[in-house]
Predict the structure.
Amino acid sequence: MVKIAVAGGSGQVGREVVDALVAAKKHEITILSRTDISVSDSTPGVIWRTVDYNDKSKLAEALHGIHTVLSFTQLLADPENTAQKNLIDAAVVAGVKRFAPSQWGSASTMDMPWWAGKDKITEYLKKVNENGRVLEYTLFQPGLFLEYLAAPYKTAKHLEPLNTMIDFQNRRAIVVDGYDSIMTCTTVQDLAAVIVRAVDLEGEWPVVGGISGNRVPISHILKVGEKVRGRPFTVEKVKVEDLENGILTTSWKLESSHPSVTGDQVEKMLKTVLIGTLLSSVKGAWDVSDEMNQLLPEFKFTQLEDFLTEAWRGKP
């Protein structure tokens, strides 16, 4: 048994991982939260601790005796990355062995400015270890959550639906003309299950922790979509040069956004996310590596066609 601290553990992905860790019944789990919500959450095996991410000494105190820190802190709400930098510093002071920063997505952030903080934190971790390893860390990267292809239907306990450039409900898609980009799609449940197993690994974590549930070209996703949805998808093509210039001439756009984006920023962010996802896909950002697959060869990932067949069974 080891002691695990989960920062941002009240968020969607964090809660999926916490549930899996609790179900494993192996470790003592502490959730670090800016607000005290322990009264409304009495999950057995979980300790809630209210922290101030601006107070490094108090953070170090909260991390005393902790073996592994998993961070799910919200990047958009902290453009200076203060919370994670202070969390890393506190982890070093407290003698934490392992740290997983808030990654949980693509292999690269190119053309995705809303995730720029990920690169800054990666550089910060490199700097912390530049004179010898002080803090073992890995960048967990599962690609696109497969559950998003079931939008608007919710297929996970905590992860809320988000629509993408492949819209199964309306049988349509937006693709980049001349490209058949590789996408890595992994269910959030598989991600959580891999994290549970990764915590138990005795060797050193790889710096990049790629988790490749399904590595497929977009054309394959569309082929599966047409099979499970019963008829061909309407496909609109956009050009790279238009996307590079911020031009989006499609008949439809994304409609659902992350809860951290509110007010008059929603429409602008949805356009930015769609353009960024399309551009980054043609540059290989969603072609995630498989380091964790290799370390866990016995683990069986949920297959894309099986998941989508079940998710869309009987749906109009």
